Amino acid sequence: MSKTLNSIVLLLGCCITSTVLAQEEILIGYIGDTNSEARRGVELGLQEANIQGKFLGLSFRILDNPTPLQIRVLGNFKAVVSKKDATELRIFATESSEIPIFNVSERSEALRQECHDNLLHIITSEAMLDDAIRQWSRGRVDSSSEAIGWHHSLRKYAASQLNSRYQQRFSEPMSEHAWAGWASIKIISDTLARSANSDRLLSTIKNNLKFDGQKGVSMSFRENGQLRQPVLITQNDEVIGEIPPPGPNTINQLDSLGTTDCYK
Amino acid sequence: MLRNLLLLLIIFNFNNSYAASNRIFVSNEYGNSVTVIDAKSNTVIKNISVGTRPRGIGLSPDRTELYVAVSVDNQIAVIDTQSLQVVRKFKSGDDPEAFAVHPNGNLYISNEEDAKASVYDPKTGALLAEIEVGIEPEGVAISPDGKIVIVTSESSNMLHLISVPSHTILRNILVGARPRSACFSLDGTVAYATSEISGEVKKIDVGTGNILGKNALMDSSAKPKDILLSRDGSQLYVAGGRANKVFFLDANTLELQKSIPVGKRVWGLALSADGRTLYTTDGVDNQISVIDTVSQTRTLTIPVGKFPWGIVIDD
C-alpha cells in the first residue's frame, strides 16, 4: 500500500516541477484507543495532509501508541495526537516535553489552567461548553439545547464538505472527537508545509496560527494552549446556532468561552 | 430561406460583429435560477430555471452562450443569450462550483468534492482533461494569453498553476487559509488571490511563485471572496463577504483605497467592459449592488433571486 502510494507520489512528483522534490517523511504519533472516532478523524486528516503534501514534497505517517522513548529515539517525530485522559496525558506531556501534544478528547478545565507548555487542546473544554449554553440561553425560554464543538449537521463554512468526506469514508457521522483528530493533523501539516524550520513547530503553532477549521473563523491558540473556536448549539440533533453569534465581533468574543488564565 | 438566415448568422458571428446584448446574468444559489437584467434600464427581464444550486457562471468568447455550473445536478446548463432559453445541459463531473472560460472556448471547472479540476468542451460536452488538485478546489482564473490556469484549493490552502495545453502543474503556492478566488495582472506576470479565513489578499509572482506582498484586510470580519482587476490594471476590487463591503486596493502596493458598503454577504463581482460600473452579488440580501468605480459610490441595488452567487455581463 505504502509502496503504491510512494510510486504515485513519485510519479506525480516528476510532473509537478522541474526540480525534483525530495520526499521528507514526517512522523506523527497517536496515543489512545486506535478503534475510535478520534483515530478515524486523524486518518482523514492524514489523507488530506498527504494530498497537500504531494504538491510540496512532504509525506506524513501516523505511528500508533509510540512510547516517549521511541519518540525521542526515532527522528522526524514532529507531534503527538492524544486521546488519553488527564492523568495519563499529564505524565506523557512531561516525558515528551520537547514536542507538541494535541489533546483531542479530554475536556478538563484544570488541565488547561495548568498551562503545560507543549499541550494543545483542540477539543472544547467543559467550561467553554457551559459558557456557550449560558450565553445561548440568556433571554431564551427553551432549555433542551446542547453545546458541542462540532456537529455532523453543520453545513455552513464548507462544514458540509468535511462532514460528507468523513461520512463517506467511515460510514458514521463526524463527531467532535473525530473533528479534533482531523483538525490536529491539519494544523500540524499546514504549519510544517509553510515553515522550513520544523524545530520551531510548537512556537509557530502557538503564536502564528490562522487555522481554517471549517467553522467560519480563523482559529488560533490561547496562551493556556486551548484552541479558540466557536461552539455550536444543537437541538434534536440539528445545529440551531453558534456562540459567539456570527458577526463582526465573533473573533473578539471567542475568549468569553471557558478559562484563559493559568494557575498561579 | 432558413438556410440563408443561418448562413447569415454564421457570417455575422465570424465577422465578430456580434452585438452585445447589454444583459447582466446572475446565478441564484438557492433560487435555482438565473436572473437576467437589462444593463441599460437596470430592470429584471427574466428568471430562468436552471436546476439545483447554480453557482459559477460565464459567457462563451463569442457571447452567444451562457454557461452555468449547476452544482447539485453535476451539470453545466447552457443558455442561449438571445432567446434566454436553456438549450442544452452536459455532465461536468461531481459538484461543479466555479469555472472560467478559456479564450479557446473550453471550460476549466473546479470539482469541489473530487479534489480535481476538469476541462470540458462546451460545444460537445466532451471531457478533455482532468487535473488532480488540492482539497475543495474553488476559484479558477486564466492568464490573459491563455497559457496558465490557476485553481485555488480551499482546504489545502494552495494555488495550483496549470500549464495549457499540457495540463501539467507548473507550480503549487501556499497562501493564507481558504483561498477562494484569483485574478491575473494585465500582462499575466502577477496573480492576486483572496484567502477567506485569513482575511487577506496576496500578490504572487507567476514566474517564481514568490509572494510579492499581502494585505490583511484590517476588518476582522472581512471574508474576501471574488477579486477583479480594473480595466487599466491599477486597482483591485475585492468582495468582502461578511464585511458587507467592497474593497478597492491599489494593485501595485495592495494598499486599501476605499471601502464601499454594499449588501450582506457580498461574494460575486463583475465589471462592465468600459470599467466604469462594478456589480456585486449580495448573497443574504438577495440583491445586486451597482457601483460607479469613478465616484466610488453605490448608485443602485436591484433585487434578484435567492442567494445570488455569480454574476457576468454581456456588454
Descriptive report:
Chain A has 264 residues and is α/β, with parallel strands linked by helices. Chain A has a single domain (2-256), classed as Response regulator (Rossmann fold, 3-Layer(aba) Sandwich). In chain A, 41% of the residues lie in helices and 17% in strands. Chain A has ten helices and ten strands. Chain A has helices at residues 2-16, 37-54, 68-73, 86-95, 109-113, 126-137, 159-170, 176-194, 201-208, 250-253, and strands at residues 24-31, 58-64, 77-82, 101-103, 119-121, 146-148, 211-212, 218-219, 231-235, 238-243. Chain A has a five-stranded parallel sheet with strand order 2-1-3-4-5, covered by helices on one side. Chain A has a three-stranded antiparallel sheet with strand order 6-9-10, with helices on one face. In chain A, strands 7-8 form a two-stranded antiparallel sheet. In chain A, helix 2 (37-54) runs parallel beside helix 8 (176-194). Chain A is globular. Chain B is mostly beta strands and 315 residues long. Chain B is 4% helix and 53% strand. Chain B has one helix at residues 2-14; strands at residues 23-28, 33-38, 43-49, 54-59, 65-70, 75-80, 86-91, 96-101, 107-111, 116-121, 126-132, 137-142, 148-153, 158-163, 169-174, 179-184, 190-195, 200-205, 211-216, 227-229, 235-239, 245-250, 256-261, 266-271, 277-282, 287-292, 297-303, 308-314. In chain B, the strands form seven sheets. A four-stranded antiparallel sheet of chain B has the order 3-2-1-28, with no helix packed on it. In chain B, strand 18 (200-205) and strand 19 (211-216) form a beta hairpin. The two termini of chain B are 30 Å apart. The chains are: A alpha/beta (264), B mainly beta (315). At the A-B interface, helix 1, helix 2, helix 7, helix 8 and strand 7 of A face strand 15 of B.
